[in-house]
Each structure stands twice: as C-alpha cells, then as structure tokens.
Design a protein that fits this description.
Shape: globular
Strand content: 5-15%
Radius of gyration: 21 Å
Number of strands: 13
C-alpha cells in the first residue's frame, strides 16, 4: 500500500462515524462463523498470553493522551485504528518501536523474543512495512537457480554473514543496501526490487534488530525461504513457523547454505511442498474480517484484565 493511501485511509477513519464495539464485533462474528472463530481464539491467546488480572503502571496512558507527534506515525495510526472503538479513558502501556526484550509488566508491542513472553502482548503495528505480500507468477522450477539477499548490515550477525559469503560464489548474490552506506564498501550493493528478487529460486531472510522484514512476502512467493531458526516474532507468529514445512532452516553459521541449495535444486518437488506450506500459513493473515476481529479482541482482553494504577 503506498504511503499516501495509508495516510488517506487513516484520516477517513478518524472522521467516519463508527458503530459501538459490541455491535461491530457481533457483525464480524456473524460473517466469520464459529469454525473460523475457534481458530482465531487460538491466535488471540497466543498474542495475549495474560490470564490473570494485573496492575497498570503509572506511565500507562489513556487513549486520548497518546499523541501522534510523540509517536512514530505508522505505529500510532495502526494502534488507533482499533483503539478508537474503546472509551477514551481506557489505559494501555505500549512500546512503539522494535522490542527485543520482555517488559516488566504487560505491554502492547510489535515484536517480542520467542519463548517466555507473557508480558509481551503482540499487536499488528508498523504493518505497512511488515505486512506486504506478493503475487508471484513464476514457478520455483522456472527461476534463476541462485540465492539473493539485500538488507542493511548493521548488526554483527549480518556483518559476519557478508564477511563469509559476499563475492565468494556466483550462486549467492548478497549485499548491503540501506539508508546508510556500509563501512565495508566492498559489501555495498545496488537496490534490487522485490520483483527482481522474485526471479531467484532462493531468498534469504536474516533477522535484523528483531524480525526480518522480508520473511512475510517471501513466504507468499514461489521462491524458497531460507533462514536460521527465528529468535523474535511479531503478529506473523514467527514462533509457530515449522522448519521443513514453511521454510528451510539453516545452521546458525550458514555452513550448510550451499548444501541445502543443492538438495532442493535436485528435489524441486520437496521445495514446492514447502512453498505450498508457506502459502497456507500466509493465508490466515489475508482475511480482513479475521484481522479486524483479532485486533479488537487483543485490546479488549488486555483491558479486561487491567487494574488501574490508582485503584
């Protein structure tokens, strides 16, 4: 979605009248049906794993105290798209940024470490950047039998990867590309559009500060996603991805990268099974009614368990 459209739709939402929360939810539930709702309740309890009442900290803000000017706009607008259905005096604690730690108390976050993370309540934030999917018309067997990766090599693990693979094989096209030029000019690459990357049989995903942005669109493509076991997750539930079913898992040091490429080029049927599994996984995020219901229910569950700091 282009940025202009994103901001336009956000503005229209703000001036449009909205039905009461209970009525809006009942309409969504009538369209979704009980079988779908049962699956969505499982996702709801995955995103918000709190089961006991908790006391809000003093810094928790009322909805009408959350300021656009003091928040990253994408995060603010994504949150307010659903928070606007709740009373203005409803209070939330939130972190509008990349989050790599587990907060001390239940907090609305975009990302969290995979594992013991009850206090990290996942919400669909910064979705313009993270929730982008593609329509890929080229089959796996028709693609260039090489691997590609483009990204900002700021973190040490990304630098270590480029040190090991940049320019070492004609089969592996990996380079730094970002707002800032690399301090290793030999790693610098040119901009490569998603359309161009889709010509490759294999696309690598490497986590950055938290998750890798490209994981989602690669899984909607007909290229084979290759990555190490993820350490962080977002609304996409990266913690539920299964190696060999949704992606090809690589060793943490990428020592088996070319071996895995060789295997799936020799067994394209196996690659296509994983790609189909990835498509099935992605499909659960493509239904607008489901995403709306879940977003509202995550906030509703959070509020239902909160105890005001001044109570």
């Amino acid at each position: 979605m282009p940025r202009v459209r994103f901001y336009t739709e956000a503005f229209v939402r703000e001036i449009r009248s909205r039905p009461p929360l209970s009525l809006h939810l009942s309409r969504l539930e009538a369209r979704l049906g009980e079988a779908t709702l049962e699956k969505l309740r499982d996702r709801l309890n995955y995103y918000c794993q709190i089961e006991s009442p908790f006391r809000l900290p003093m810094e928790a803000k009322r909805i009408d105290e959350i300021e656009w000017s003091k928040s990253p706009s994408y995060y603010f607008l994504d949150f307010m798209e659903y928070a606007r259905f709740f009373p203005n005096d409803s209070r939330f604690d939130y972190l509008f940024k990349d989050v790599m730690h587990v907060p001390d108390h239940p907090t609305i976050v975009k990302s969290r470490p995979i594992g013991d993370n009850v206090n990290s309540v996942l919400f669909k934030l910064n979705k313009l950047r993270h929730f982008h999917f593609v329509k890929d018309r080229k089959r796996f067997r028709e693609k260039n039998e090489r691997l590609i990766w483009r990204g900002a090599a700021k973190q040490e693990h990304r630098k270590a990867f480029l040190e090991k693979f940049h320019g070492k094989s004609r089969r592996i096209d990996v380079a730094h590309y970002g707002r800032e030029k690399s301090k290793n000019p030999e790693w610098q690459g040119t901009y490569t559009s998603i359309a161009e990357q889709l010509k490759f049989s294999f696309i690598l995903s490497i986590e950055g500060r938290d998750v890798a942005t490209n994981t989602k669109w690669v899984m909607s493509s007909n290229s084979l996603l290759m990555m190490t076991k993820p350490k962080y997750e977002t609304w996409f539930m990266e913690g539920r991805l299964v190696a060999g079913k949704h992606y090809v898992q690589l060793a943490d040091d990428y020592s088996d990268l070319e071996e895995k490429m060789d295997h799936f080029l020799a067994h394209p049927g196996e690659a296509e099974e994983i790609i189909e599994g990835a498509h099935c996984y992605v499909s659960q995020f493509l239904q607008r009614d489901s995403e709306d219901w879940l977003s509202l229910k995550v906030l509703e569950k959070y509020l239902s368990l909160t105890i005001s700091s001044d109570a």
